Amino acid sequence: MKSGSRSRIQQIQGQGRGCETPAGLKTDRADQPALQGPGRGIHSRGGAMTVLAQSGMQNTFRLRASSEIAYFALEIMNSTPIRVAVTGAAGAIGYSLLFRIASGEVFGPNQPVIIHLVDIEPALPVLQGVVMELEDCASPLLKGLVATASLEEGFKDINWALLVGSVSRKPGMERKDLLGINGKIFTGQGQAIQKYAAKDVRILVVGNPCNTNCLIAMNAAPEVPRDRWFAMTRLDENRAKTQLAKKAGVDISAISNLAIWGNHSPTMFPDFYNARINGKPVTEVITDESWLKTDFVTTVAQRGTSVLKARGAGSAASAANAAIDSVKSIANPTKAGDWHSVCVCSDGSYGIEKGIICSFPIRSNGKTLEIVQGVAINEFSQSKIDATVNELKDEKAMATELGLLPA
Ligand SMILES: NC(=O)c1ccc[n+]([C@@H]2O[C@H](COP(=O)([O-])OP(=O)(O)OC[C@H]3O[C@@H](n4cnc5c(N)ncnc54)[C@H](O)[C@@H]3O)[C@@H](O)[C@H]2O)c1
Q: Averaged over 13-41, what is the pLDDT?
């Protein structure tokens, strides 16, 4: 893929859908005639507010149909769209992810978005179909689409990058071969993010091996602060929560404080010792510790393979869902007392090598993340954490040997 090549297939601008214009947002909507009659005054954001206030119509407005109220909400929403890049946008996870971003589910009902769909040249015809379907959803929050194989266009001014696209492991391919192929992709994407993205960009890597891909991209973008880089273990967390809820016969919402430690791979450790069921330690509710140490850990570790065997295709909808959960948990404050799992750049906490991208128990205040300190680690947990961190160190050594990381 050539950065800057003229491979963009479409950019929607000002097609009467309130899309992006050079001067900013267009708020008049030809497709909302009911809202443009005399006395309604909802032709522009400022105008709408003024007319309603002057004529004392606020109470009347509250009684109107919910669809109109939804449109009113649109009128007072944040006027600046955020730009979100999704790589691998023509792939399976992309297809489960993009429509939920466009609907407002990820960044909120008051946050307009412009989505950059990034894929490789051969995938552009498919991407064009995805673009058509996104348009056909007529989401009021979707202010523009950029479909491209150019990294410059793909990452220009983006506030979020969801790096999903990567090459899957083929039969007979060694882990090192895969790392060599994907490592190059993430070097280029890291460099492009540094060069073209907005200053506040945050990056979530989903494409596997996601921890090391994230490490490679982060090292290729030394000017992007290290606390903006994340890799995804939320799917493992969600899988683990489901298994605990099923075993305990409780609702999924009863499970909290479930941290995944380490690498997003079968070596990850779902920390059942510190997880809670209705506020109680898991081991007080599920007293079969041997099940927790063996069947539970193995089921979570092998869940991706089980889905692949059953479906004949990898986890896609659940992976997209986990990406959405990850972004929401990073961008919004964590519930008091709880934590979530995401891979961040290690600061050396819990003796884990500084600088590697490792999954920890994490809390967010909506702006910054912190690794939760003081989580109890027993001998069993420590041996599991050591194994998964050693795998991360091996991947790092492999990437260094391949020249993808500085020696
Ligand atoms: N972290 C996790 O929990 C998790 C979970 C599930 C899947 N994954 C990983 O997510 C990735 C994507 O999965 P999928 O099911 O969507 O795969 P997919 O094969 O359906 O789609 C991958 C897409 O990436 C594109 N792509 C390849 N190279 C690219 C590049 N250089 N730039 C941009 N796009 C590129 C492909 O053209 C394709 O459209 C895989 O690596 C998979 O292993 C991670």
A: 30
